[in-house]
Amino acid sequence: MAKCQVCFRHCELKEGQIGVCGARIGLEDKVAASNYGRITSIALDPIEKKPLHRFYPGSKILSVGSYGCNLRCPFCQNHEISWSEEAMRFSETADTIDPERLVFLAQKYVTQGNIGIAFTYNEPLVGYEFVRDVAKLSHAKELKNVLVTNGTATLEVLAELAPYIDAMNVDLKCFSERTYREILGGDFDMVKDFIREAVKTAHVELTCLAVPGMNDSPDEIREMASWIASLKDAKGNVIGKEIPLHISRFFPRFHMQDRAATPVRDVYRLSEIAREKLDYVYTGNC
Questions:
Q1: pLDDT tens sequence across 67-104
Q2: Which of 46, 127, 154, 183 is deepest in the core (most CB within 10 A)?
Q3: What is the set of domains in the chain, with CATH numbers?
C-alpha cells in the first residue's frame, strides 16, 4: 500500500486502487497518475477564457484537459470529466498523447496566435507529472505555460511545477473553512497556502464563482479581498492589491440545478466591494 502525496486526502492505495480524485492509482511501491497523457479535451482558446486578463491579453493558448478532480463541487461545470461516473469511463476512452507530441501541436498553432499550453478543464494537479513533463519541454521551446487549478495540492507539488509555470488562475471558491469542508469536500488552508506560494513565482489571477446563499455575502467577499490584498512576493513586498480577482456569475449546474442564477446586480455589487481593496476586479458570465 502506498500513500498519495498530492493533496490533503493522502489516500492510501493498494495496488490497482484508484484514489478519490479518480486519477491517481496505487502501484506496488508508489502512487502514480493513471491519467498521464490521457486527453479528454483540447481547444485553442482566447487567454481571457482561462480567465487571465492581465497576461498576454488578446493572445490564444492551446488548452488541454484530462480527467479527475480532488474536490466535489456540487455546481461543477465540467463534471463529465471531473468526478462523475462519466469521468471514470473517460479513463478507458481518452486519447493518449505524449509530452513531445503536445508541445509539437502547441508550436504548430503559434502562427494562429498561440503563446503556449494551458492545463485546464479538469483539475490538472491530480496529474501533475504530465503537467511537469510537458511544461519543461514547452519552456525549452520558448512557449508559455498556464495552470488553471483549484489550488488543492501540497507545496511539494507546487515546487516541482513552479520553475515551468508562467501564469495561473486559481479558483478561490469561497472564503470559509466550513464551506470548503462541508460543501466542496476540500481544505481551505491548503488552498490559501498554495496561493501564498504561487504568487511568489508566477503571474496569478484568482476566480470566485458567486453562488447565491453559499459564498455571496458582502462580508465574505470583503474578507477575501482583504486577504488577497495582503499577499507578498518572494522578496516580502506586499503585492496583493495588484492581483486580479474575477467574480463570476453562477448558473444552475449539476447538483445545483434547482438554485437560481446569481442576479447580475449582485455580481456587480460584490465586485465593487472587492475593489475597496483590489485594483483589478473583473466580472464574468454577466
A1: 999 999 999 988 888 876 666 666 667 779 999 999 99
A2: 127
A3: 35-284 (3.20.20.70)
- What confidence tens digit (pLDDT) does each residue in 129-184 have? 999 999 999 999 999 999 999 999 999 999 999 999 999 999 999 999 999 999 99
> In angstroms, what CA-CA distances link 120 with 7, 43, 69, 181?
18, 10, 11, 23
What are the cell numbers at 57?
491579453
Q: Give the Cβ contact number of residue 132 at 10 Å.
A: 18
Q: Please check whether residue 143 is in contact with residue 166, taking contact to mean a CB–CB distance below 8 angstroms.
A: no
DSSP string of the chain, one letter each residue? -EE--SSTT--EE-TT-B-TTSSEEE-SSSEEETTTTEESEEEEEEGGGTT-SSSSTT-EEEEEE-S--S---TT-S-HHHHTSHHHHHHHHH-EE--HHHHHHHHHHGGGGTEEEEEE-SS-GGGGHHHHHHHHHHHHHTT-EEEEEE---S-HHHHHHHGGG--EEEEE---S-HHHHHHTS---HHHHHHHHHHHTTTSEEEEEEEE-TTTT--HHHHHHHHHHHHT-B-TTS-B-GGGS-EEEEE----GGGTTSPPPPHHHHHHHHHHHTTT-S-EEEE--
